[in-house]
């Protein structure tokens, strides 16, 4: 894919790492950015209530290196969404994304997340309020499922997308399975409802003018390429979640393969070590500037050496809380020793 230098520039949504609560915080995104320069990164979901009433620095601060980075909002009240979209703009985010896919009970009590798929007009109004507030400065996008509960008909997601597009949303990221709002935990809701990629391809055929990215169970380069292939599903983008987090090396070839940007990271181990060293320097900086313990950062990179000799021993050192009083450089020294012993 994208091997032809004269081809048009790839969609900004061509590849992205999914928003993941508790996982894709600023440290995780900094780490992912070291592995891939072009992939779009998403924050964890932040509720409008937390932004309006809570600690904005905690929720919104990010590293300049993270661009392009999108803020994902959880909320449904158009005025609140508009206010939060403005915060995102002021802070320099590249996109505001609305979560219409999270099925957790806490989120349902707040009447947002996946249950918003039953209220497309409200989502349209929220999107419009955000677009009005931003005046086109940032794209407003929506991440959603293909259905809720036992609604399997394509018409449901088609009507949702059609209505929300009326609010000025032109980018939809579709997690290609239903959310079952009762009886499943959020984790089960990422595993049990069946994946139906064909519905997402159908959306793209029906709305060729919209940017449609697909999410759910996609990880390998071959799987990604299949979704982007103009002769196949011809989707505009692929969003990868769990695999990118657990096995970050999957991202190492993305810039070259999907963005035509050299062959920065090759198959040998040097790139892993270089990134680990950059992370150690980052940990030292975060400790000095913000008092952040290295363990808060290191937890996101525990998959870095997966599949390589000594990975388990390396991981054990970086997750050893007895070392929490040591500087990150010393932990790195011990981890290297353990890995190569
Ligand atoms: C730990 C975890 C937290 C998640 N938090 C969010 C979230 O905050 N917002 C959201 O839209 N999706 C969230 N998701 C769902 C992912 O964004 C993604 O849609 C899902 O994991 C399917 O993609 P995958 O199969 O590539 O992992 C979360 C997933 C995981 C594993």
Automatic annotation (TrEMBL):
UniProt KW Signal keyword: no
Binding site for FMN: 19-21, 72, 143, 175, 215-217, 241-242
Active site (UniProt): 102
Gene3D superfamilies: 1.20.120.1460, Aldolase class I
Protein keywords: Flavoprotein, FMN, NADP, Oxidoreductase, RNA-binding, tRNA processing, tRNA-binding
GO molecular function, one term: tRNA-dihydrouridine20 synthase activity
Site (Interacts with tRNA): 99, 187, 190, 312, 315
Required co-factors: FMN
Function summary: Catalyzes the synthesis of 5,6-dihydrouridine (D), a modified base found in the D-loop of most tRNAs, via the reduction of the C5-C6 double bond in target uridines. Specifically modifies U20 and U20a in tRNAs.
HAMAP family assigned to the protein according to its UniProt record, in alphabetical order: DusA_subfam
Protein name per UniProt: tRNA-dihydrouridine(20/20a) synthase
Organism for this UniProt entry: Pseudaquabacterium inlustre
């Amino acid at each position: 894919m994208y091997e032809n230098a004269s081809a048009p520039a790839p969609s900004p949504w061509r590849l992205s790492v999914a928003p993941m609560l508790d996982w894709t915080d600023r440290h995780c995104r900094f780490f992912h950015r070291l592995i891939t320069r072009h992939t779009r990164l998403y924050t964890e979901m932040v509720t409008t209530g937390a932004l309006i009433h809570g600690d904005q620095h905690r929720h919104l601060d990010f590293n300049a290196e993270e661009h392009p980075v999108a803020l994902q909002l959880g909320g449904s009240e158009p005025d609140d969404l508009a206010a939060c979209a403005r915060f995102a703009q002021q802070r320099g985010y590249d996109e505001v994304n609305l979560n219409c896919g999270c099925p957790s009970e806490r989120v349902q009590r707040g009447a947002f997340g996946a249950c918003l798929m039953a209220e497309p007009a409200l989502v349209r109004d929220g999107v419009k309020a955000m677009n009005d507030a931003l005046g086109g400065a940032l794209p407003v996008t929506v991440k959603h499922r293909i259905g809720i509960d036992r609604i399997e008909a394509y018409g449901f997601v088609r009507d949702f997308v059609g209505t929300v597009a009326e609010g000025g949303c032109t980018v939809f990221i579709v997690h290609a399975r239903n959310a079952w709002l009762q009886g499943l935990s959020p984790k089960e809701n990422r595993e049990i409802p069946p994946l139906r990629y064909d519905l997402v391809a159908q959306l793209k055929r029906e709305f060729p003018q919209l940017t449609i990215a697909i999410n759910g169970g996609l990880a390998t380069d071959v799987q990604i390429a299949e979704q982007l292939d103009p002769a196949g599903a011809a989707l505009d983008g692929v969003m990868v979640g769990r695999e990118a987090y657990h096995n970050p090396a999957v991202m190492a070839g993305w810039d070259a393969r999907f963005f035509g940007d050299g062959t920065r990271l090759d198959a040998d181990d040097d790139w892993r070590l270089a990134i680990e060293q950059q992370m150690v320097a980052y940990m030292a900086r975060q400790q000095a500037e913000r008092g952040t313990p290295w363990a808060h950062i290191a937890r996101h990179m525990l998959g870095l050496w997966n599949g390589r000799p000594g990975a388990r021993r390396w991981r054990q050192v970086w997750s050893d809380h007895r070392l929490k009083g040591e500087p990150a450089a010393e932990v790195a020294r011990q981890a290297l020793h353990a890995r190569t012993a």
